[in-house]
Design goal:
The protein contains four helices and 30 strands. The chain has 565 residues and is mainly β.
Length: 565
Amino acid sequence: MMSKSFTKFIGQTVLTSLLLGAPAVAQTAVIDEVIVTTTRSDSLRIDNPGNIATLDPSQTVNLFPVELLNQAPGVHIHRGSGQEHLTAIRSPVLVGGAGAGSFLYLEDGIPMRAPGFANVNALMDALPQADGSVELVRGPGSALYGSNAVHGLVNFISAPLDESGASADIAIGSYARHAVSLQSAQDHGSFMTRLSLDLNGDADGYRDAQSFAQQKARFESAWQDGATGYRLSIAHMNLNQETAGYAASYEDETIARGNNNSDAYRDAAATRTYLRMTTDLDSGATLMLTPYFRTNDMEFRMHFLPGTANTTIEENSHNSIGLQVAYARDTDSVSYVSGIDIEATEGELTEVQSGADKYAFRSPTSIDYAQGTHYDFEVEAQVIAPYLHAVWALSDATDLTTGLRWEMTDYDYTNNTDTGRQGKLYRPANRSDDFSDVSPKIGLVHRLADNRRVFANLARAARAPQTTDIYRLRDQNKDGEVPEIEDIDSEVLDSLEIGYRAVYPALSYEATAFVMQKENYHFRDGNDYYETDGETDHMGIELSLDWMLARDWTLATNLTYAKHE
């Protein structure tokens, strides 16, 4: 059991005028607010059996998705240099494989990165400036989502493609920060198209030799052919970042604004495309097929590795193809979604140190990071996950939600360099590994009135280890042993939450309380030993409130008190 505990109180209050942006209109809370994340189709937020926050990107003028997501309760995302960040959603701030693999980031319900190949800075791929809404779930997701939807998931949802128009937004700030967002939508008669472009950067960062330039673009098209609707999306991101390393002080401005890693950088590119086909069947059911493809490439200097004289470069990439199949049907007593997610990925990683270890004067066995190739490996991964999500009407006022997901993950690993130990690093020989995870869900919603609900949700979430968790090993754990890959299990989290939700004409609020327990937590302890059997406990309360004070003024506040140990 990890002995260190973290207690967090997070509060945020935002007072906004509706005069910013388009002409002011009266805004009121609505009982029939629609969400899509839980079932990949429209459902009422007020009837959701667990928490879900809906965020409007158009209300936030910023360069960083972090600033938008931090408006939700239970969320604390820490901005780093450039587009880097560390995430906490019903958790302490997590780093490494846990920081990458504990949160699922989606674009229109499709993971932006492959399971097992996540990145701790995943928000750099998102394009909220072109999205219609963002939905955020704290804790495990529904049965439709598997690996990485452990502590939370974020779904960036494209705006409806139903009318022509063009827009341009320009933002300029200190340190030469700038953002230009352009959109153009056209009605071509039988189909619609939209092109979105976002250019943003920080040409003269707060710290020495720190800057970034990022370009994002998305092309979308939608059309109808008989009973089938089609939606095509192609998105691309490119990032060139000059990274600032860690600062030893924040009170001394000279040190805080300095940069001892002036040659650190991060270059990344990502492309994602999908075609969603939604068919209304004669039976009244709906069939949704979504083939998709993604590619990710990244290169960066690992300035944070001790003793390497800032000379280690990591290059990683992965390419994926996948298919989501969902069949949804409503009857008098039950509404259900059944389906299967299938994905195949090829990934590779190299880590090379060009300079000598600064501790090389010691014996070779004491060298932390030896000059030369640290890692050079490839992984082929396959994920197959059938699921069932159903909502049962127990009475006119009470609904029961049940869900089950069975996710099977296979890794085929190839080592392209010497096997065994180098310094404090350990490189496994070629091998294959598989993980099988079953995640049950059950939730209850009771209608106290048309505008008020109480809910409870019991859910399990699981994630197969990240490929870097099991194939980029250190030489020993706290017992002086090389970790046995066969002993590394999937991380499992069990969650219970209860909540109350109310919507009035000018006021809406939601209060939740949660407890969670996690096993097989992968982490590095204070002595830099790699542990794979950690256990953590999490509990807390959350409150979100939106209050329209007057025609043109809205007060929004979120409060969180949580303990993690």
